Structure formats: C-alpha cells, structure tokens
Input
Amino acid sequence: MTYQGLIHHYRQYLDLPAHTRTITLLEGNTPLIPMPRLGRDLGCELFVKFEGLNPTGSFKDRGMTAAISEAAGRGAKTVICASTGNTAASAAAYAARAGLRCIVLIPEGKVAVGKLAGAVAYGAEVIQIQGSFDDALSLVVEITQKTPIALVNSINPYRIEGQKTSSFEICDALGSAPDWLCLPVGNAGNITAYWAGFKQYQKGLPQILGVQAEGAAPLVLGHPVEKPETVATAIRIGKPARGEQALEAAHESKGRIIAVSDAQILDAQKILAAEGVWVEPASAAGVAGLVAETGSGAFEAKGGRVVVVCTGHGMKDPSIIAESFKAPRVIPADYQTLFESIGG
Ligand SMILES: *Cc1c(COP(=O)(O)O)cnc(C)c1O
Output
C-alpha cells in the first residue's frame, strides 16, 4: 500500500491520544544512504540517515506531524514555537495544512535565510526576539501556560513520539540497530527521541555519539552557555530543554557527548558533499564528531556499522556556501574559449 505518513505507518508504536487527527505531508520514510568512500576512510560500514529530505527539509517534520495532529484534534486554534529556524518552517507548514494560526519566535538576526523564508512562505507570523533561542523558548512556555495557545517545541511530548520513528526506520532498513548512531545535539529533543525509539523497538541498541558545537556545548561543559556561538545555527543553544535526557541517553547507551569546532563542522559539510550529500552545517556535526573520534584511534566503532543522522538539507543555509565561493568564471559564449578554459 502507498505510504501515508509516519503516524499511519507506525501508529501502534506511538503514544498519541485518541483525539489525534492526523495532519500529514507524508514526512518520514527518508533514505538511509550508504557512504562507501567515507566509510572506507573511517574504517566502518557507514550510512547517512538523510533527514533533510523531509517535506520542509529537516527532521522537525517527524515531530511536527504528531504535535500538530494532537493540537488540531484537541481543537487548538493557534500554535506557537521558539525556533532557530527549522522548527519554525515545519510548524508553519503543518499548521497551514491543518488550518491553524502559527506564531514563531526566532532569535534576532541569527536565522538562516532558507528557514526564515520557509516560515514566511507557509504563512506563519514571525516575530524576532531581542535575545537568544533560550529567551524565546522561555517566552513561549510562559504564554502557553497562560493562554490556550498550543506549544509545539520539542518539550511537547508528542514531538518526541513522532521523532522516535526515525529509529524504527533505521532498524527496519538494516534489520537491527547499528553499532553506533551519531547525531548533532542542540535542544536535545532528537537524541532523546532516538534513544526512546531504539529502546521501544527492541531490535538492538546502538551506542550514541552526540555532537555539540564548541561554542554551544553546555552538555560537554556541564553548565549552561550564556551566549552560545556557532556557524551551526540549528544547534546554537546554550540551555538544552532536554539536557538531562541527552546525558542519560549517552550514558545508558555507553556512548558520549563531545564537542567539535566550527572548522571541523564545515570540513564535515564538505566531506559529505564530496560524496553527494549536501547538508546544513549543524547536520554535519555528527560526521564531524565521527571523524574526530575515529581520528583519535581508540574509537570502538572501527569495523562496525555506523549511522550518522544528517538532520537538515544544505539548501536551508545557502549563504554559508555562497559566502565562501569565488564568483563563477565568465567567458564569451564560444566553443574554443570554453574548450581552452576547461583545460581541454
Ligand atoms: C533542531 C535541529 C538540530 C538539533 O536537534 P535537537 O533536537 O534540538 O537537539 C540539529 N540539526 C538541525 C538541522 C535541526 O533543525
């Protein structure tokens, strides 16, 4: 039968209330792409779970189909979220689909153009806060406690329910859980969801490598970061809402959470693109972490099966690339010049 979205596909595994009215854009069912060249270099059997191929270009759609379906079914008229960008685009799309009003709060001046454009295109009301993501999140929590507006950030438990399905898909594709799962960690909803998913599905448990950016690494430092800074805007978060659960997932899985530099993240973005997978900077953090760990020589994943979660598409943040490339050469429209200029 044709695919009808992840709620329909995995309904029996999802703890969603009876009033849930499914709102779907056929999210999920993303490819698990083998990366033979990079895998050979790193000494493992490597796959990328390419979550950038969800309807709005990031994994946020998995959680959003669940959160909006629950809110719509309960009769909510308005949803709100704080966002570094991808949550905003996703909330906006699913709210539009459900016919709900959507308000998104973003930190001032720090949101990638492809994400903001998405939120606007889907008709959300976008408000910039003179503050960080963490400030924006505090505000949406307060307003949803005092008004009937529904909160769709990943502290909403249904977001986690939806996001668990990626673990199920990985197990279904491979036949069992991989040895290691590497992924970026920002507000820590996703690492929480993956771990819950693997535990529930009972097809084995991976060790989890969570990766933060050095300038926004509260879970590595052991304390909140007042002014998080990183080129990887989707994980530019100083006070992760599910930080405790992230540490628990790393610990229980016998994995860890590490930090990598912006330079390592941008390198990893290039490495992935060189094998045909273009992701936004934050999404490359998992690979950056894997490269750093395998480089250290002592990494247990050697020879094992590794899945790296690439959370969002490269087209979300084109300016990162556009700022760094030289303008294309300009030549006359003539065959001989073309032939010579490509070293014919
Ligand atoms: C939201 C997001 C993350 C971080 O996920 P958390 O659940 O906040 O840890 C990473 N990468 C991308 C592309 C995102 O949109």
User: Anything to note?
Assistant: The pocket of pyridoxal-5'-phosphate is lined by residues 58, 60, 86, 154, 184-190, 234-235, 280, 282-283, 311-312 (CB under 6 Å). The two ends are 51 Å apart (CA to CA). Residues 60-73 form the longest helix (14 residues).
